[in-house]
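Let's practice the habit of predicting before peeking. Look at the sequence and jot down your guess about where helices and strands might fall. Then scroll down.
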Amino acid sequence: MGAECVLECADDDDLDGVQAHFERLSDITFPGLSVDASGVFAVDRDSGDAAAPVGQADVVFSGSRTDAERAVVAVARKTAEPGRQADAILAALNGERQVEARCSLLRVLGGLANEKSLEAVCNALKDRDAQVRDTAVRTLSDWPNAQAAETLLEIYRETQDQTHRLLSLRGLVRVLSVSANEYPADKAVEIYRRVMKLLGSPAEKKLVLSALSNIAHPGALEMACASLDDEAVKAEAAPAVVKIARAIAGSYRSEARAAAEKVLSATTNQVVRQQAEDVIALIESIDCTSR
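Done guessing? Here is the structure:
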């Protein structure tokens, strides 16, 4: 059976109604997806059939590549069980040689974000083509969960490309943050310990301090406290320390108090000093209640 819908990635944003066409396509459920060498996405009723050429398709939509990728993700998410949603895209990627089409397929895999997708995108980091490698880094940096965390850390540690270094660090911080409810704090702290040893610029340190401030864990407090000794980021470290100390004051009173006292000795910022004093007062009230 031929293709029901074909998305021609013409990179043409001027056609009326294109967005509506793609949104309508994303409401359709089909089990088969494929991409040909011209950069055409095809959605088939029967995944075992080859996609029909554009001229033979029942319906042809033309629009931006981004819209097409998003529509294919939306359709693929409705096919089969989650573990097989990327199978047709992976099959297309294995046989694809055109760089633009390969990059599109990688971005689609990032939208599906299952284990098979992650493996394929990680493999693309070693591709011979620089554009494909760049797309792989950017796709991983936009990964919707913490499954990509270890790979992002490896990119940050190994890459000589400063753009990729910053992208991977931002991506790592983001995936750990968005997965905070599912990702154990102990594991996040372990990763940040490794990151802290690699940090270079003050901007990178400030980014990590901002992330640490949202982790209610004594290990996060320890790392933030250590940054109070760094003049380049002391102003950012102090409020991070206070925030973590307040969050863990009930369970780690001695650590929280010591951290708040260190803030008082390290900063002249009156707002932060008052917050540190409030943490100490909170701990004292907890101590009185527990006696």
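How did you do? The longest strand covers residues 3-9.
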